[in-house]
Structure prediction request, 575 residues.
Amino acid sequence: MSIRATGVTKRFGDFVALDDVSVEIPTGSLTALLGPSGGGKSTLLRIIAGLEQPDSGRIEIAGEDHTTLPPQRRNVGFVFQHYAAFKHLSVRRNVAFGLEIRKRPKDEVKRRVDELLRLVHLEQFGDRLPSQLSGGQRQRMALARALAVEPKVMLLDEPFGALDAKVRKELRDWLRRLHDEVHVTTVFVTHDQEEAMDVADEIVVINNGVVEQVGPPDELYDRPANDFVMSFLGPVTRLGGKLVRPHDLEVFSEPDTGTVPATVVRLVRLGFEVKVDVVVGDEELWVQLTRGEADRLALGPGSPIHLRALGAVSRPPARAH
Amino acid sequence: MFGAGLATMWLSLLVLIPLAAVVWRAQEDGAGAFWDAVTAPEAAAAIRLTVVASFIVALVNVVFGTLIAWVLVRDDFRGKRIVEALIDLPFALPTIVAGLVLLALYGVGSPVGITLAYTRAGVVVALLFVTLPFVVRTVQPVLLEFDWEMEEAAASLGASRLTTFRRVVLPNLLPAISAGTALAFARAISEFGSTVLISGNLPFKTKVAAVHIYGQIETDNTTGAAAVATVLLVVALVVLVGLDMLQRWAARRA
Prediction:
């Protein structure tokens, strides 16, 4: 089901967490709210869930106004960064919680819990307590618990933030596959651009309480709306005062159309990619090359080179030909 | 290994050997004498009063101790730090001073118009006064460490506030409440100083077991004193073990 936030504003004292934010999240999508810490993305998620009340604005889920509805009646699944596992209950009872609250028949609860435990690969862990699980297992349990009540939408607040890098990578692949299986509209908050690009169909970049840009990962990467989005979504460097991606710089050994002369300062080989630090006048920048390119140009500290930003050729027509 | 040995020795020297000595003393004149000592009408009345009053005090503490701890952790109000400091006062005060304070307030010619002197209600109030900190101070740290996101998780799963409290918050507090209650109860059945002034120590009416034991020793009936002491010991043990079992049972079926 779709989610629509219209003109949502939220202040905490003097701090403006969200400033007139409007976002639309289509049914069945997997959307990332991406941005730096304190940018307002978690607040937006909590407002959608009803865990926080907006000062103004409107929240609709599946076309119905949810703005003043308490969280109990929104039927959204919420997953917390630190799992919020019910410590005194076994994994099974955690997953069954929402169904037991709804007084579903015992055999139905059992069947559904078994099914969910299989889905999150915890079928042998049903009788354990949350404290006997690893972080990744706890988060999968929390996901199963949220999915148990067949929520209209799933909201995940930095779901992998408390996990170590390897588990994080595994879980996000798993989340992607799970979403392809379950198809429930899912929104997750992250400050990790790689995670957002890897998992999401659509990314909403939020910074300083406003939405900077919305779009699919490729579009945001290739056509960022502003310098903030550009620098947040990938590596950047500066040539002639303009932000460019280090892999979008062409390197020549002889002057060419639109090139500027530069000098190599240092080469760092990172496996197949080579990071080349250069100076153009008194401006320092870096260029990302493949090992093949760097070898072909026979680069070394002090080499004179000529740089051009990709796509810059046609732009200054005065210098063309 | 060494640590365990040292702990056992320490516990034996301070607790087990003296307790064993009391139990030994109680049965020295035979089972008959023991039975006579504890079923003597005055002794039985004192034991009954002490145990019943202690149960009442324990129950009141479960509710109000938890409530005070809750308010201290979750609410912000003016004078919170003063209340925070006051909680421990009954514990820090010499109990006889507590008795004096209560006598001044609720004694004959009470300035607030409530006279509890020489009544069983007075005994209960004195016990409540000295046992106040136990549940508060055991529950408070658990609430401070409490993962309140559990509440939000329960809410988003559809649980009302009451259901959340009953099914999520309370089960997580239960071990602390139970431990605090056990301490409060144990303190209440052994209390002497705070009750001795306000109760007037009327036999069959307001004399508590500890005062009765003291009276028996004063009249050179050491065996009688030891017999009543043994009964208190058994009651305390039963309650401590019982609460522990209750807590385990609750944890299993939460």
Summary: Confidence is low (pLDDT under 50) at residues 313-321 of chain A. Chain A touches chain B at residues 49-51, 70-78, 80, 82, 84-89, 97-98, 101-102, 142, 145-146, 148-149 (CB under 8 Å). Chain A has nine helices and 17 strands. The first strand of chain A starts at residue 3 and ends at 12.
